[in-house]
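User: I've been going back and forth on whether these two constructs are worth ordering. Before I decide, could you fold them both?

Assistant: Sure. I'll take them in the order you sent them. The first construct and its structure tokens:
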Amino acid sequence: MIKLPGKKIKIAVFISGTGSNLKNLIIFSKRKNYEVKLVISNKRNAKGLIFAKKYKIPTKVYYLKKSSKDEKKILDILLKKKIKLICLAGFMKILSSSFIKKFKGKIVNIHPSLLPKYKGLNTHARVLNNKEKYSGCTVHFVNSKLDSGKIILQKKIKVLKNDTAKTLQKRILKEEHKIYPKALQMIIN
């Protein structure tokens, strides 16, 4: 899909929280054909910004309260930094359809469920409330409908009898760390 002979693909990672998927993508990028060149957050105190600074990756914070104005600023910096792919990693804001159109087919997201089931928030609690036998995570392309883009890769895990939303979340997060870099390799090659 995205290939530049002999060059690493420049990616931006959008975060809102702890940044464990960001950290994982940075570590994998050291030996893969992409590099994290920018981290964008909608929260100034997002713990993931610490990882970016540790690895000397530029960061920007946009609160997205005035969405179109902030999105314009984001697009400008993405173009300036020659970003070819955006990875959403726990980014808790919905991007506008006009923003998505400008990066059509070049925005991916990781979601903590087996899409198309359990789109949106509180996925682990909903999985447990519905007594599902399996859950997992999905890397997918982003389109204008929430968690509805084409699936790139999924990992299924068994829901254990003693699982709580927190224990299920931790187990799924470990799988997210495995499949997100794999999915990037699939789309970059």
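The second construct, handled the same way:
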Amino acid sequence: MKKVVRLTESELTSLIKTIIKESDFSVEPHIETQPRERDVRGVFGKKYGAYIPNDVLRYMRKNPKLIFGKLYEIYGDKAYDYLDMASHKTDEIDFGDEVDDNLDMEL
């Protein structure tokens, strides 16, 4: 006989989050994570980095020119401003979990 367990909504949510966090789905699961891929994961911060699939990190590592090109398509010449701010203020800006609304410039 099967036992039916009732979970509260918060218990179910917690269980799902745990399963998602522990799963490490990859199209190529036997490829070891490279150091640069761990660095790229850090771009997304502590809050979201754990949810970025390894395949996405690998793609970003292997195609930096394409990634920067896409960011330039999105932000245009303002991308240079962001890069300039990042290169001069890396110890002052936390690129992790918080978004600074002042950095969101108009296109």
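Notes on the second construct follow. The first helix runs from residue 9 to 22. The mean pLDDT is 78.
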